[in-house]
Amino acid sequence: MESEEQKLFHVIPPEESKCVWMTAGILSYQLCDRKFECEECPLDIALRQRFTQHQPAVKRERPATPARTADESRVGVLFGRKHLWMKRKGDNSMRLGIEPGMASVLVSPMAIVLPALGAQIARNKACSWIVLGGGTLPMMSPITGHVTATNSMLAEHPHAVCASPLDEGWLFELSVNAADVDDADVLATADVARIYSEDERPLKHYLSTDPGKAESGNYQSQTEHGRAIERLSEKLGPTEYLKLLRDIYT
Q1: Cβ(149)–Cβ(171) under 8 Å?
Q2: 3-state DSSP: the chain helix, strand, coil percent, rounded to 5?
Q3: 126, 154, 199, 242: least CB-packed within 10 angstroms?
Q4: What band does 66 get if pLDDT is binned at 50, 70 and 90?
Q5: Which SS3 state, helix, strand or coil, does residue 136 take?
Q6: Long-range contact list for 11-17, CB < 8 A, 24+ apart?
Q7: What angle separates helix 222-236 from helix 238-249, to the nearest 10 degrees?
Q8: Which one, of 137, 40, 130, 139, lies nearest residue 82 by Cα?
Q9: Contact 112/161 with Cβ under 8 angstroms?
């Protein structure tokens, strides 16, 4: 007798794209007639409302200075091309999360949709989703593996991905093998800052005319930068701001 997983395998070819909520383990099967453009999908809207109806959006607060220094928190961290990081947690285990630059531009995340335990995650494919006011922002895994743990704290505290992206705000852990690690889409340490800065040029273009900038053209604190991001998101509106983030980070 076939298992439910085997039956599902016959219905959905391995190469077929899947609805994000199906990949996350929320739905068993869902056909998509919108070319996987979630912004105006009524199902996506309904599910986001379900996940956020008990978690009203609150004014985003700037995270306090972490107890550990930035250098200490980055020890052993490898940064992926699509702005996720990974860090070895054991011989065959990797922990993943979003990099601090990406975390700093998320305005009031309402929910984090994590993959189901046991799910297979593919390199450079969507692995988690951040639910924002304008829709869902997919996050792309730098490595292939199977999900062995997820950060349950994010269900009640989704803003932890912003406040502590390298620590308490981690996303999930994967079981990986040596070939997966060798094939991971990660950047050389010397190239991370330059490449991420190039990715964020469209965002910097919008911020270049922000009235809160100092005469030097830079923000003097993390708090000022955060307020500028909030002003930009309000100016563009949630849908257009989400499109900007998708262009940069996916």
Answers
A1: no
A2: 35, 20, 45
A3: 199
A4: very low
A5: strand
A6: none
A7: 120
A8: 139
A9: yes
